């Protein structure tokens, strides 16, 4: 790909008789985006169209029927320094699209038609919105949408202005707030495109429509337009409801959805100029904000991780077509179901038939849910059902390309299983372990081909949690790592490669966080305050809620492993032993810190009695103070993990922690958060925490908040 | 016999479920695909190595016209593997194995996946001819008058459906439903009601003992039925076996097919069930090269025809043929599996096997001999387990092969009567 493409080659304008054809060729990129060269060419093209009188009908298309353009240039957004620069970029795009829209006035017989296929997102879709009609390919790889909200900004090149006219205010609000990319059928149903056709027919049919030879009218909104879209009272109600919904789901941490909820409902009542100006103001402010930066960094991390599914030389690895999963507990059943739903043929093995039955039933119920929501068709559901088989006999995994074991966390039992698997599976079958607390190196010992053993640590619940830790054991080879990462990617997860240390990355960094929460509880800090403080910080749930979800027994086992590996700074590891002995395990036993039954979980008034009261009180009274204490514990351990090279880079550490725990994505992760505060200040606060009486009184308290040498040296710079 | 005989390399079946019960919601191809996937997982060959698929099925679902093809693709075989569905009434499962054998003998294939599949629960109810004609008239009616005339021609009798199950079990040549052919045999061969009931009871007792002794576990792959709710369990055993069956309970039943004097009741007839069975067929060298000790050798296969009104005697002629072809006698059979369509029919076969007059009339030779009940249907039969028509032929072979193995080898005879007046008989040899 060229570094600087020649002008006129990025978006080429040609004339076929009276039809103007604008092609987003972008020869300098493997996937076209609306970058600076593209913008310049589009501006040249619209200028020529404005100047010439001899054309009727405009066709805008990608370089082929499965490629259009994937929105704005993320590099450019990342490079934005300040609000003024952002606003300039936004207004430039807006002006361009408005010029396209204004070309409409001159044409009676011909139309301006976009023919899209493949990815058509963000700014690229906004260009289409400025034209008359949109024809889309009905192939399964068509993805249309406005995902800007996911990066902390909003569609500011006319998306918020123009989509409501097509789809109505409520639908447009929903589309822009969710930021989903829609399939062709979904886009047609929502009114985002006007017609579908086969990719082989796309250019021909769109050209005929553009020339006026084939009729196509946009669906009129009719009465709904009058009653809702242009009705000030209805719009006010919609805006208020949207704002409430956004605050509820984001806790007010994300500004972009609030701006969207403020601007979109009024789009039909306000003038084009006013709405565009509102878009520009919001986008300018948001694009330069730390939130956008942090979300972009996470997004890029996810994209970069996609390259892990290849060998170091860049060769693709063989995809896993037949997967074996041993252990039909929560994790095993989850892994099997997710893999089957993503097209992998799965054989789930367990000695207990009841567990297998439960896993199959759960899989079927999940598919029924998707069928009812029309997200899949009946024959796809049937094929997905066919892809999950259950067996009590591990020998029937003999044709698998990869096997993941998710049995009980017992070293002897896992080693026995791996040895047994080696007898039955092919010699090149990948052997992956979902262990969360045992060293992969230990599991490799004694096997005849240990190099194909790798850790593949999923998070609970498997369907929702996007992170997979790929653990390189002592003897694991590069091919096994690549195949493991490829399997994770095929399951639509994000792999992060971590070292084979206790707790790997996420559980290790989470250790001090959770223990500190329990320590504060022991020290008299009210349970509601602990959870509320961290939710206000931006965590999806408070630490006590998290312990309930994970299960006290699982958490205690992890805590003990961490304590014996890393010492007193991880805490005593036995804080929950009394509760566990009494049968209080969290959600799985119906009661933990919360009471779990029908409906929402309710915090128990006696939650604090589940842990022993400590002699020294913790004098933290405000949410800020509580959050600061827990986040400091997390940050300190994160730097220690980085220092110990548990992951290769800060980016990967933050990515893993955000994806694995839901740590406030808008803050970017523990390391990014620390840098935002300022490392010198972090060191300062750590030292002050060490001096707190309740920390001093605890064994390992000082160590937990001790800034590691790496942090100290980074802070000096 | 050639030096590299054909073998049943491996096999597996689903439990047999009473119709309208556990498998009532299954589709035939889904059940077949499941058992095929299970067979592949238990065998050394990958899906890509299978040359052909042959599936026996009588009640082919209307939306799965070539059941075998759907089974093949849903079992994970590549699109390039051809597949066909075959039918020879009650012996369709055995016919599938026969076709596989012929494909291998002709040199066209080396490894064939066979199956027998039947979901009798899903046999449809059909509109009668008069109702169908009425629908056609209505769809052709364009003007309001024509439509009105069509509606006026509707009659309540058009609501009465044709029951495909009943029609399928009625032989169109003799006009007799299967049970009535058994009544004919019961009268002609002097089988009493008590004889039939006693036999039925023994079938249940033997099947129960086999189940409880774990002898079916080697053949069965448990199946979790479609539509299972949380807390549901997979079906592990054949569920048509009546644990509490007694002679008194059997005696209380009224004759089903010929009232009031008939001897055939629902208690001493085979059960209507759903199920599937899959087998791999190849040459012995092919199996051993893959490191597999095959289940049994296929040393003889024969088909015969007889009077449709007396279809139950089908096994007699077919057995005579296969024994003649292999040079073996009934005494040489370590294991005999004779399908229990009806107790009266099995008992009539027993007498015909040993009847010099029958032998003289039908093949001009010596009678076959006495059936040894310690070796015959030792694990019960279709009266207890059920008779999913398309699958039974394959199941019989699988059960016979396993029983042969358990008894240390030798020869086994598997034979069935076939609606319409045919018989099929295969001879297996232990391959250990």
Question: How are the secondary structure elements laid out?
Answer:
The complex is a heterodimer of chains A (717) and B (432).
Chain A lengths: L10 E6 L2 E6 L11 H16 L6 E5 L11 H6 L3 H20 L9 E5 L2 E3 L1 H7 L3 E5 L5 E3 L13 H9 L1 H10 L2 E2 L1 H7 L4 E3 L4 H10 L11 H7 L2 H19 L4 H9 L8 H16 L2 H16 L16 E5 L3 H12 L3 E5 L3 H20 L5 H9 L1 E4 L10 E4 L5 H14 L5 E4 L6 H5 L8 E6 L8 E6 L5 H13 L3 E6 L6 H17 L4 H11 L5 H8 L1 H15 L10 H5 L12 E2 L6 E2 L19 H21 L6 H12 L8 H8 L1 H13 L1 H4 L4 H4 L4 H8 L1
Parallel strand pairs in A: 2-3, 3-4, 4-6, 5-7, 6-9, 10-11, 10-13, 11-12, 13-14, 14-15, 16-17
Antiparallel strand pairs in A: 1-2, 7-8, 15-16, 18-19
Helix pairs in contact in A: 1-3, 3-12, 5-6, 10-11, 11-12, 13-26, 14-15, 15-16, 20-25, 21-25, 22-23, 25-27, 25-28, 28-31
Chain B lengths: L5 E8 L3 E2 L9 H15 L9 E5 L10 H8 L8 E4 L5 H14 L5 E9 L5 E2 L2 H12 L3 H9 L9 E2 H5 L9 H11 L4 H20 L34 H6 L20 E11 H6 L6 E10 L8 H13 L6 E6 L4 H11 L2 H8 L18 H4 L3 H18 L4 E8 L3 E9 L2
Parallel strand pairs in B: 3-4, 3-5, 10-11
Antiparallel strand pairs in B: 1-8, 1-9, 2-8, 5-8, 6-7, 9-12, 11-12
Helical/strand content category of chain A: alpha/beta
Please state the CA-atom Rg of chain B, rounded to the nearest Å: 22 Å
What percentage of amino acids of chain B are in beta strands?
15-25%
State the assembly state of the protein chains.
heterodimer
Largest sheet of chain B: 10 strands, mixed
Helix content of chain A: 40-55%
Number of DSSP-assigned strands of chain B: 12
User: If you average the pLDDT of chain A, what whole number results?
Assistant: 92
Instruction: List low-pLDDT spans of chain A.
Output: none
Beta-strand percent range of chain A = 5-15%
> Structural class given helices, strands, pairing of chain B?
alpha+beta
Which pair of chains forms the biggest interface, and how many residues does each contribute? A-B, 25 and 25 residues
Count the beta strands of chain A. 19
Describe this structure in words.
- The complex is a heterodimer of chains A (717) and B (432).
- Chain A is α/β, with parallel strands linked by helices.
- Chain A is built from 31 helices and 19 strands.
- In chain A, strands 12-11-10-13-14-15-16-17 form an eight-stranded mixed β-sheet, with helices on both faces. In chain A, strands 1-2-3-4-6-9 form a six-stranded mixed β-sheet, with helices on both faces.
- In chain A, helix 5 crosses helix 6, helix 11 packs antiparallel against helix 12 (272-287) and helix 25 (623-643) packs across helix 27.
- Chain B has helices spanning 28-42, 67-74, 92-105, 129-140, 144-152, 164-168, 178-188, 193-212, 247-252, 284-289, 314-326, 343-353, 356-363, 382-385, 389-406, and strands at 6-13, 17-18, 52-56, 83-86, 111-119, 125-126, 162-163, 273-283, 296-305, 333-338, 411-418, 422-430.
- In chain B, strands 1, 2, 3, 4, 5, 8, 9, 10, 11 and 12 form a ten-stranded mixed β-sheet that branches. Chain B has a two-stranded antiparallel sheet with strand order 6-7.
- The model of chain B has no long low-confidence stretch (mean pLDDT 95).
- Chain B has 15 helices and twelve strands.
- Chain B is globular.
- Chain B starts with 5 loop residues before the first strand and ends with a strand.
């Amino acid at each position: 790909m060229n570094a600087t493409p020649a002008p006129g080659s990025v978006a080429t304008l040609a004339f076929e008789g009276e039809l103007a054809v604008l092609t987003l060729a972008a020869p300098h990129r493997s996937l076209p985006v609306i970058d600076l060269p593209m913008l310049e060419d589009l501006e040249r093209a619209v200028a020529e169209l404005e100047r010439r009188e001899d054309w009727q009908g405009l066709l805008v298309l990608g370089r082929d029927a499965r490629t259009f353009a994937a929105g704005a240039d993320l590099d450019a957004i990342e490079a934005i320094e300040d609000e003024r620069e952002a606003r300039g970029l936004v207004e430039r795009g807006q002006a361009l699209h408005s010029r396209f829209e204004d070309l409409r006035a001159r044409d009676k017989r011909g139309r301006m038609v976009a023919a899209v296929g493949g990815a058509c997102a963000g700014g690229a879709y906004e260009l289409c919105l400025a034209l008359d009609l949109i024809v889309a390919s009905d192939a399964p790889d068509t993805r249309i949408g406005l995902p800007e909200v996911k990066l902390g900004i909003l569609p500011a090149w006319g998306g918020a202005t123009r989509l409501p006219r097509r789809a109505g205010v409520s639908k447009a609000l929903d589309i822009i707030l969710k930021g989903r990319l829609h399939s062709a059928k979904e886009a047609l149903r929502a009114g985002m495109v006007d017609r579908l056709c086969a990719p082989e027919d796309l250019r021909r049919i769109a050209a005929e429509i553009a020339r006026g030879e084939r009729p196509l009218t946009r669906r009129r909104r009719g009465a709904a337009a009058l009653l809702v879209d242009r009705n000030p009272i209805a719009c006010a109600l919609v805006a208020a409801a949207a704002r409430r919904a956004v605050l509820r789901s984001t806790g007010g941490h994300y500004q972009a959805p609030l701006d969207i909820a403020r601007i979109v409902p009024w789009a039909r009542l306000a003038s084009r100029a006013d709405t565009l100006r509102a878009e520009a103001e919001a986008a300018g402010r948001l694009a330069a904000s730390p939130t956008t930066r942090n979300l972009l960094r996470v997004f890029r991390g996810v994209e970069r991780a996609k390259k892990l599914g290849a060998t170091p030389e860049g060769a693709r690895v063989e995809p896993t077509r037949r997967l074996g999963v041993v252990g039909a507990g929560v994790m095993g059943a989850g892994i099997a179901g997710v893999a089957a739903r993503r097209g992998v043929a799965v054989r789930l093995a367990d000695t207990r038939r009841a567990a297998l039955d439960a896993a199959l039933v759960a899989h079927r119920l999940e598919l029924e849910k998707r069928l009812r929501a029309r997200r899949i068709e009946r024959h796809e559901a049937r094929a997905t059902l066919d892809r999950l088989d259950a067996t009590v006999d591990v020998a029937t995994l003999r044709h698998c390309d990869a096997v993941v074991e998710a049995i009980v966390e017992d070293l002897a039992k896992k080693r026995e299983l791996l040895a047994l698997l080696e007898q039955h599976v092919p010699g090149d079958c990948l052997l992956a372990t979902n262990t969360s607390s045992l060293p992969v190196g230990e599991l490799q010992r004694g096997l005849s081909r240990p190099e194909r053993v790798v850790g593949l640590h999923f998070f609970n619940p498997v369907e929702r949690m996007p992170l997979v830790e790929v653990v390189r054991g002592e003897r694991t080879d590069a091919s096994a790592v690549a195949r493991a990462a490829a399997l994770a990617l095929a399951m639509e997860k994000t792999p992060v490669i971590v070292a084979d240390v206790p707790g790997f990355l996420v559980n290790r960094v989470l250790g001090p966080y959770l223990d500190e929460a329990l320590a504060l509880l022991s020290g008299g800090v009210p349970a509601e305050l602990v959870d509320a403080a961290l939710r206000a910080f931006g965590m999806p749930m408070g630490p006590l809620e998290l312990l309930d979800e994970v299960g006290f027994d699982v958490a205690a086992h992890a805590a003990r492993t961490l304590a014996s590996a890393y010492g007193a700074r991880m805490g005593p590891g036995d804080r929950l032993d009394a509760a566990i002995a009494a049968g209080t395990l969290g959600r799985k036993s119906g009661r933990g810190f919360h009471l779990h039954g029908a409906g929402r979980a309710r915090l128990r008034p006696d939650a604090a009695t589940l842990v022993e009261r400590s002699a020294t009180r913790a004098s933290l009274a405000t949410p800020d103070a509580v959050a600061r204490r827990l986040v400091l514990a997390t940050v300190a351990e994160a730097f220690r993990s980085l220092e110990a090279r548990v992951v290769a880079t800060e980016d990967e550490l933050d990515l893993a922690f955000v994806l694995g725990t839901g740590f406030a994505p808008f803050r970017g992760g523990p390391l990014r958060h620390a840098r935002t505060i300022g490392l010198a200040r972090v060191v300062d606060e750590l030292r002050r925490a060490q001096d707190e009486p309740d920390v001093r009184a605890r064994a390992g308290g000082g160590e937990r908040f001790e800034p590691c040498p790496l942090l100290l040296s980074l802070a000096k710079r | 016999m050639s030096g590299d005989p054909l073998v049943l390399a491996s096999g597996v079946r689903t439990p047999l479920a009473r119709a309208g019960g556990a498998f009532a919601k299954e589709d035939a191809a889904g059940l077949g695909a499941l058992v095929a996937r299970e067979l592949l997982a238990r065998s050394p060959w990958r899906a890509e190595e299978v040359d052909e698929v042959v599936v026996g099925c009588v009640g082919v679902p209307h939306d799965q016209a070539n059941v075998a093809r759907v089974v093949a693709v849903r079992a994970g075989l590549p699109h390039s593997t051809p597949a066909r569905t075959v039918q020879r009434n009650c012996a369709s499962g055995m016919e599938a194995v026969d076709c596989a054998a012929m494909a291998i003998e002709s040199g066209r294939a080396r490894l064939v996946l066979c199956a027998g599949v039947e979901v009798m629960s899903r046999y449809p109810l059909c509109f009668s001819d008069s109702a169908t004609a009425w629908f056609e008239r209505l769809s052709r009616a364009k003007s309001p008058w024509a439509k009105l005339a069509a509606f006026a021609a509707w009659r309540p009798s058009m609501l009465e459906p044709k029951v495909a199950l009943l029609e399928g079990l009625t032989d169109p040549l003799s006009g007799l439903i299967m049970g009535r052919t058994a009544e004919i045999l019961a009268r002609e061969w002097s089988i009493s009601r008590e004889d039939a009931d006693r036999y039925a009871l023994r079938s249940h007792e033997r099947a129960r003992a086999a189940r409880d002794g774990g002898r079916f576990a080697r053949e069965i792959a448990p199946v979790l039925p479609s539509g299972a709710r949380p807390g549901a369990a997979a079906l592990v055993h054949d569920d048509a076996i009546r644990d509490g069956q007694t002679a008194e309970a059997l005696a209380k039943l009224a004759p089903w097919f010929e009232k009031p004097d008939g001897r055939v009741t629902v208690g001493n007839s085979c059960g209507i069930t759903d199920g599937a069975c899959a087998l791999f067929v190849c040459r012995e060298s092919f199996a051993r090269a893959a490191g597999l000790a095959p289940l049994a050798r296929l040393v003889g296969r024969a088909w015969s025809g007889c009077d449709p009104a007396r279809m139950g005697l089908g096994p007699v002629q077919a057995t005579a043929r296969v024994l003649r072809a292999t040079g073996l006698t009934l005494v040489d059979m370590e294991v005999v599996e004779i399908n229990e369509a009806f107790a009266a029919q099995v008992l009539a076969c027993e007498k015909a096997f040993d009847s010099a007059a029958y032998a003289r009339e039908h093949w001009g030779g010596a009678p076959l001999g006495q059936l040894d009940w310690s070796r015959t249907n030792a694990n019960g039969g279709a009266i207890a387990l059920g008779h999913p028509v398309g699958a039974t032929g394959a199941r019989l072979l699988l059960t016979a092969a396993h029983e042969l193995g358990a008894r240390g080898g030798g020869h086994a005879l598997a034979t069935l009567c076939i609606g319409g007046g045919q018989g099929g008989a295969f001879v297996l040899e232990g391959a250990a």
